[in-house]
Amino acid sequence: MNVTRATFDEVMVPNYNPAAMVPVRGEGSRVWDQDGAEYIDFAGGIAVNVLGHCHPELVNALTEQGNKLWHLSNVFTNEPALRLASKLTDATFADRVYFANSGAEANEAALKLARRWALDKFGEEKNQIIAFNKGFHGRTFFTVTVGGQSAYSDGFGPKPGAVDHCEYNNLEAFEKLISDKTCAVMMEPLQGEGGIISPDPDFVKGVRELCDKHNALLIFDEVQSGVGRTGHLYAYMGLGVTPDILTSAKSLGGGFPIGAMLTTTAIAEHLKPGTHGSTYGGNPLACAVAEKALDIVNTREVLSGVEAKEALYRELLGKINDKYNVFEEIRGKGMLLGCALNKEYEGRARDFLVASANEHLMVLVAGANVVRFAPSLIIPDEDIREGLARFERAVAAVVEAK
Q1: Average pLDDT score, the chain
Q2: Active site residue: 221, 244, 351, 383, which one?
Q3: What is the rounded CA–CA span in Å between residue 67 and residue 355?
Q4: At which positions is pyridoxal 5'-phosphate bound (predicted)?
Q5: Percent of the chain with pLDDT over 90
Q6: 250 catalytic per annotation
Q7: Does 221 qualify as catalytic in the annotation?
Q8: Per the residue annotation, which of 126, 134, 250, 292 is the catalytic one?
Q9: How many percent of the chain have pLDDT more than 70?
Q10: pLDDT value, residue 402
Q11: What are the residue boundaries of the structural domains of the chain, listed by start?
């Protein structure tokens, strides 16, 4: 059956507007479309393809497991899930893991657990959830309501209640909002969709202290920032603050859908049998691939390599900006970087994305003012250099067309 980009408009719900080209094959940080044209991938499937495309060890893990056992449901447990959970608890603050299929599902589980924990321990008055403006936590109705971008949650009828928002990095405003009625605070330790906003270290520490003071759980949404993205296995490790619940997805599966919620024994016990579940969550295929991805990423070689690659990106982006003066700053950490546009190019991030695609480079945006890069953690330096040469041509095209 011959399919093209035009087929999308005929058969798919129009909630996406995908690129004109259709990728058909990937290897490492390169992708080829239906016409055989080659692209360099700085998008990483939106911070998912942590080891690039078709990493041989991930392909092998999937193939091996695919020949053994695909699905059981949670009437049974399985060896890959048990191994992956053991490795996640060994590597983090957590004692217990719940598996789902996506970041949104992991966040849904975290929020439900926090509400159930508060109900059991303190009663139904303690139900407020605080999150932050520009935050993003998924597209289920609960998680999109907790997310701090009303454009994504408006227009679907009455929203889940007792959810309040605060300005990120504003500890004074947060202190006014939190109280003994707060059951949980959900935050990204590096805001992704909201514009690649790094947290002020004092802000994060202050949030933790105020959560402790008011007996509220601190939930870190590490769906985008986790699994090596910042040069730490999880971003919290570089902030000196430990959450009560952490959510992980995206990079965790290296491209295979999986989500995980991590927490302590004392908190986990409030999700008793029957209180929450997922038919596919923790399936053997996803867990086998994620275990291998975690094994590879959680090494000194890969994690320290992230820091070196960030330095190379910043150096070369600085040279581009010296020449064209389009960026106000380069934000972010590790392999989650944002080129924030200056006032002269305000609102034009998509123009840079389109111009990059024309130069056979895949990039992302984070809002209207930030061009986002979330490549493989092991992208070769030569691909960074070639990709940024293409990006420079894209920047020149936008500047010249102005």
Answers
A1: 96
A2: 221
A3: 43
A4: 103-104, 136, 221-224, 279
A5: 95
A6: yes
A7: yes
A8: 250
A9: 100
A10: 72
A11: 5-54+300-401, 57-297
